[in-house]
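Quick illustration, no need to memorize.
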Amino acid sequence: MRSHGLLLALSLATATPALAEVPCGESFSSFVSKMKQAAVQQGHAPASVDRFFSSVRQDPAVIKADRAQGVFQKNFLDFSRALISQNRMQNGAAYAAKYKSTFDRIEREFGVSRGVLLAFWALETDFGQVQGNFNTLNALMTLSHDCRRPELFQPQVLAALTLFEHGDFDPATTKGAWAGEIGMVQMLPKDILTNGVDGDGDGHVRLKTSAPDALMSGAKMLRHLGWRANEPWLQEIVVPSNLDWSKTGLNHKMTVSQWAKLGVKPRSGSLGPSNLQASVLLPMGRNGPAFLAYPNFEVYFEWNKSFVYVTTAAYFATRLEGAPVYSAGNPQPGLSGAQMKQLQQKLVRMGYDVGGVDGILGEKTREAVQHVQQKLGLPADAWPTPALLSRL
């Protein structure tokens, strides 16, 4: 999935010393020379650096992929229905059985539920079948040279160099997603250095070919990003029609017991621990599906910044552990991509930070919409409609 979408999983720990940013945008050959100098200054052997960079090429297809992320303009119902197929559900059950001992170990050691990793594995690479066909070093160097986010990608290049020195990265043949992620659950080189686990005991971390390595590493990274062991992440709920909609959204939290007092009920099973903080999430507004988002749901945004991807991945994880198909409800029609951009432009002119005019209904746009709905005396469920757009 990442090969089509947003950059994911930003490494928090520094696996390599801080890199003084190499100037972006100049000729690529000059940029390569300066990256080599930076690598040597950080203590890498010159001969090793020369071998590592010998095959590097700029890849225009990487920049094209980085600029084209329209898949995230879909709403939650369309996006989740497209991604959560019967085939993926069946394969999820089969892989859960095949790697039961690995998942048991993960739950013991990291407290990450198997459905969570199965969903990532399915959505990222279709259980390892589609891992991306971009040369990883070329992708990382192309994005390091591009002036959009060099501070993110240049340290990833040096992390890949360290993996190369360990015998775990071949600059000429290692392939993955356009944004430089590698393997079955798509991890960046710094994340592999920090959180890579040899799950099958062969002495190497092989995220492309070893499911135990990939799953154990993914679980360790989730813990590293703040996953709370053995706690829920998302649960479908039924909300009363008279709920104060202005209290909904990820920017509003109450304890589970407080939500229950307001009439929030689980659609199946029971709610999480009464003292857990949680948010009521309405991805399609008050007439669509409703979820209770627990603290672990926030960790998903460390893996991927897209609201619709995160909500789909978290919901899919619950499905893989037996939750029923959501109640779709009857949500009001939303906005097209062009209409969403219009709305965002109007919100920006009103002084709101929408996180960029990109036609994507992300969390900042939702918060701005909810605030405007309150000011206009409308149900403040953060779901923008054509009627709201015309009111503005």
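The mean pLDDT is 92.
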